[in-house]
Every structure is written in structure tokens, then in C-alpha cells.
């Protein structure tokens, strides 16, 4: 498992979730190496070498699940590389990332592309 994202309404609930998660992962012989939180109190019991985000460093981004997260502000960003040449393909790729950020429609798009290429082969 790479990343776990979770949230809670208050610190007490978050600490309880953190305690349960650590216990559950220990039962499976897993160890979490990188911890991040938007509240310093949640990272108080985590060793410094296991913290991915340190509150005393300014404006730090944490990358998780393909998104960039700014813990101090608790905001998510989707940073994209800017391509020099804009083509129909890159425009469609950008639009699909907006409407389908997890790529759930990708198998459907690939199937349609394969069907179109078969039609082209028949017509030629």
C-alpha cells in the first residue's frame, strides 16, 4: 500500500484513528515511513525521521495519490507540466484529467480507440 488519506472532524477522533491504524498495520507487519498531517499535535508522537512534513519548514508540498497537498493551508493542488506545443491529443488529455482525475474512464477510451483503428483498417 502506498498512501492512506483520511480525515476526522476533531483531533481526538483523528488521534484514535491514527492509533487504530498503527495497531492494524503492526498486526500485518507493516510500518508507516512517512506521516503528514495538517495539525502538529497529530505528529507529536511520530519520530522525526518518519515525518514527511515538518511544521517549522515554510510552504512545503507533500505529494500523495497524484496530487500535491499543502498541509499548513490544507489545500490540494493538481500541478501539471506545461507542454510547448498544444495538439488535439494534449488538449483532450488535459480535459480528461479535469473530468476524470482517477482515470476510471481510461479503459473505455482505449476500447473506443481500438474499435476506430479496426474500422480504418477495413476501409483502407
TrEMBL record:
<protein>
    <submittedName>
        <fullName>Uncharacterized protein</fullName>
    </submittedName>
</protein>
Amino acid at each position: 500500500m502506498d498512501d492512506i488519506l483520511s480525515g476526522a472532524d476533531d483531533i481526538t477522533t483523528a488521534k484514535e484513528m491514527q492509533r487504530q491504524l498503527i495497531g492494524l498495520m503492526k498486526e500485518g507487519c507493516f510500518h508507516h515511513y512517512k506521516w503528514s498531517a495538517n495539525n502538529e499535535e497529530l505528529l507529536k508522537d511520530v519520530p522525526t525521521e518518519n515525518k514527511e512534513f515538518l511544521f517549522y519548514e515554510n510552504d512545503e508540498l507533500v505529494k500523495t495519490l497524484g496530487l500535491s497537498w499543502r498541509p499548513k493551508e490544507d489545500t490540494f493542488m493538481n500541478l501539471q507540466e506545461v507542454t510547448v506545443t498544444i495538439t488535439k491529443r494534449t488538449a483532450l488529455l488535459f480535459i480528461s484529467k479535469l473530468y476524470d482525475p482517477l482515470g476510471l474512464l481510461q479503459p473505455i477510451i482505449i476500447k473506443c480507440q481500438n474499435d476506430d483503428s479496426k474500422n480504418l483498417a477495413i476501409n483502407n
